[in-house]
Fold this protein.
Amino acid sequence: MKMKSLMMTKYGDVNIGLEIQEVPLPTVTSNQVLIKTHSASFNPIDYKILRGDFKAMGKIQFPRGIGRDVSGVIEKVGEGVKKFQVGDKVYSRIDENFVGTMAEYVISNSADVALIPSNLNHGEAASVPLAGLTSYQALINVAKLSAGESILIHAGSGGVGTIGIQLAKHLGANVTTTTSTKNIDLVKSLGADNVIDYTKQSYFDQSTKFDVVFDTLGGKYTLDSFKVLKAGGRVVSIAGELDSVTTKQLGLNKIVSFILAIKAKKITKVASKMGALYRFLLMSPNGEELEELSKLYELGSIKPVIDKTYNFDDSIKALDYLSKGRATGKVVVNIRE
């Protein structure tokens, strides 16, 4: 049996490296579920991989699926799956081995799946997994952000930023975020206590120093995070240089690890001088943490922020739009009407 799937066909620009193709329906093994996709969402990692940004970590065998977030209904369960049944409405940030949620059907490990929040539709649910788990793992697992602490979240109007602000507020932190003029009202409505309009102000002008900086931008922002950090504070980055913990997680060889350690040297040096923590977060799929996020959505502590929704035939346009870097919240694709 065949299904339609958006496939990466070669490295390059969004408009030349993608194509909707007919591919075989995936088969389910013991601890997996087959999800009939209703909606999926794109993340910056999708166009960065297509562009070839991560070739050093390993080359892609083309054609390859694209997309990591899915919301849909379980069509089949493997014989080892006890927690879910056919007909359950679920969502998942699928394992890297099964990447390809821009497709009519998707395989996921059952351990990476959770029931969608009861108050969200499939499009809203599809906006959550990768960005939600990234914020959850960065703020709760790594930064261990606690009530009364101060945090600076870069790019508060992005997919991760919009969830990060709300999660940090739920944890009781004092939240400062950067955004452009047009998104000030949005980030305030999400709970930001202090907003820095980066088109007019610099976050260096803040008189306060932060307990935690959540770096979603990388480049110069990673090193500069330490200039506004309290001694002993924590910088968690999803876009900066890889640290030794992440290099080990990825199982990279000694030569690549050595090169990455040299690239991260300035950062590790300044962190050590300040007694601060620096971690590059490599988010990982996790069904139990998705369940925790579901509770927060059901409580209304976090609300989905969706910029645009496209239909499947326009999925290339959807990724092209996201790649321009101006999306507010998430870009969702409805695979089925």
Q: What stands out?
A: The chain has a mean pLDDT of 96.
